[in-house]
Amino acid sequence: MGLLIAEYRKIVTLRFWWALLIAPLVIGVFASAISAGAADAADEVDPNFRTGLASVGLYVAIYMIVIFSALFGAINTGTEFRHKTLTPTFLTSSGRDGVIGTKLLVTALFGLAYGLVVEVVSVVCMLLFGGDQFELNSTLFKVLLVSLLAVVCWALIGGGLGLLLASPIGAAIALVVWYLVGEWIFAAILAGIGLESAGLHLPFFSTIGTVAAGQLDGESDWPDFAISFPTLLLWTVLTVALGWYMTRKRDVT
Predict the structure, then answer these.
(1) 3 state DSSP class of 229
(2) If DSSP codes are grouped into helix, strand and coil, which group holds residue 42?
(3) What are the C-alpha distances in Å from 80 to residues 7, 39, 76, 96, 204?
(4) Largest alpha-carbon pair distance within the chain?
(5) Rounded to two decimals, what is the model's pTM?
(6) What integer is the mean pLDDT of 113-118?
(7) Residue 20: CB partners within 8 Å, gap ≥ 6?
(8) From CA 42, how far away is CA 73, in angstroms rounded?
(9) Phi and psi of 162, rounded to 5°?
(10) Where are the domains of the chain?
């Protein structure tokens, strides 16, 4: 419990935890309001299209909160390396494993909180501006649930990368580059050498299949949910395990 309280205080005494929430929250509000309003105004368009249009803002919000939760994880785990406070942290605790595990647990909880805030605000905006074109149904709740899991996974991926690289800036840059363009380029290279299917199992593409919650199943361009979600979990476990191992072995004096 002491480690949890200490880790929580380390985070809330700095501004980065709420600063990282501002951008996805604002983008989620505007995207949800605009897409829902556009769907409500499109009276003469096919109802299925209007429903999909009303949901665009939610997916934009999820896209943004995924990367910002990953950035939070990278900064949270990497900051102590940068400021060289990890040594006294290890010395005043019972061991490295407890510190690392607590740091990752709190990272996951903050990622979950990020996702909840952005999703709730986005859904409220869609209900307010969507009129009859947006309704709460089982598909929506499934998307919201699996999206929360994806956000937590990326928070841990960011946390694992911060531990692995021992640098918040290096981990943050790597995440942004990979998330925005790197994975697309790498997937294109794999496709060029005949391994197109392998590219669908990379972290970002696995996230798309996860967040779609089965709605893209059967589409050749995207992985099915039954494959993408376990794959995303595997990437999460792999990144966390590597970061944990390197932090246990690294000289932090």
Answers:
(1) helix
(2) coil
(3) 11, 47, 8, 13, 27
(4) 67
(5) 0.92
(6) 95
(7) 68, 71, 72, 75, 114
(8) 40
(9) -60, -40
(10) 2-249
